[in-house]
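Field reference: sequence -> structure
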Amino acid sequence: MAKKISDELKKAIKDLPVVQKDKLLLRLVAKDSLLVEKLQHQLLESAADVEERREALASHIHAHFSSDNMGFWSHSPGLMMMDLRSFSGAVTRHVKITGDKYGEVQLLLLLVNIPFVYQQKILNNNLHRADKFAKYVVQKAQMIFKKLSALDPDYYLEFEQDVNKMLQHLQHYPPTATLMTTYGLPLIWEY
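Structure field:
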């Protein structure tokens, strides 16, 4: 927990020689890995690097969900949800580092759609074990609509196909279809 710095200490720190302040600053920054990555991005990377980071994360998600390991006998919708939660954390970290709101919507759409694309067999064979998975992906879909509304409407055309694909997946999978109206999701997205 961060402690409040007294005014006396603030003044003393400000009066330190520049070299000493720089050493202290570097030591403090090194303790926060997220801050280090954020500064790395802001100070040393270009706008093209944001897209490269986004594509690398999307490739990692595709590789994981298209893997044959996913079909291992113990995989269930619940375990798939755990994988989605892990990747959702990676998306959040990406956004905190880069401020990439467009990429956030794109990557979240990928997360909701990808289990239905690559692992439909596991989902269909385990309908009786899909409650938590269904609730999780429907809540993610609801979040996507909220994040979409915060973007410039000029981007809507770029997301239309993936959003409607997501809605189709949710409609055709019985555990999510029953939750769609509860969470206020449309059957088709028209902006």
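Note: Residues 77-98 form the longest helix (22 residues).
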